[in-house]
Amino acid sequence: MNRQNHYATLHVGPCASSAEIKSAFRILAQRYHPDVTKDQDGERKFKDVAEAYRTLRRPDSKVAYDHQINNFCAEAAATSYPGIDNFKWGMAVLQIYSWFWLSSVRAGE
C-alpha cells in the first residue's frame, strides 16, 4: 500500500504551522466535498484530505507522524519553547545579560 505524504495531500510544507494546516484543510474540504465537487475522484480526495487533517491537527499525532516520515522540522519544533520564538528568547537573554553586566560595572565604580 503506497501512502501519500499528508503534507503533500494538504498542499502545505513540512514545517507548516497548525493554523496553515487548518486553513489548507478547510479550503480543500470545501473543494472536494461530495455534495459540491464535480470531480470523479472527489470523494476519495475528500477522504484523503480528512485523514491527513485528522493526523496533523493534534500535536501528539503530528509529532509521531513527523518522526515516522523523518521530518526534519519535528526536531526544530521540539527544541523550541512553547509560546516563545527563538528571536524573543534571544532578546530576553540579551536583556538579562546586559542588566547583569551593567549592574556589575556600576558596583565596581
Relevant terms:
109 residues; mainly alpha; 2 domains; 69% helix
* The CATH H-level homologous superfamily of the largest domain: DnaJ domain
Mean pLDDT: 80
Range of strand content = under 5%
Query: Regarding quaternary structure, how should these chains be classified?
Result: single chain
Question: Helical region count?
Answer: 6
Structural class: mainly alpha
CA(first)-CA(last) distance? 74 Å
Element order, helices and strands?
A: HHHHHH
Low-confidence stretches: none
Query: What is the CA-based Rg, rounded?
Result: 22 Å
- When the domains are counted, the total is 2
What CATH calls the topology of the largest domain is: Helix Hairpins
Number of strands: 0
Binned, the helix content reads 55-70%
CATH class of the largest domain: Mainly Alpha
> Given the C-alpha coordinates, what overall shape results?
elongated
Largest sheet: number of strands, sense, barrel closure: none
CATH architecture of the largest domain: Orthogonal Bundle
Short description:
With about 110 residues, the chain is an all-alpha fold. It has two domains: about 5-70, DnaJ domain (Helix Hairpins); about 80-109.
Question: How would you describe what is shown here?
Answer:
There is one protein chain. The chain has 109 residues and is an all-alpha fold. It folds into 2 domains: 65 residues, DnaJ domain (Helix Hairpins); 28 residues. Helix content is 69%, strand content 0%. The chain is built from 6 helices and no strands. The longest helix is centred in the C-terminal third of the chain and has 23 residues. It is elongated, with a radius of gyration of 22 Å. The termini are far apart. The model has no long low-confidence stretch (mean pLDDT 80).
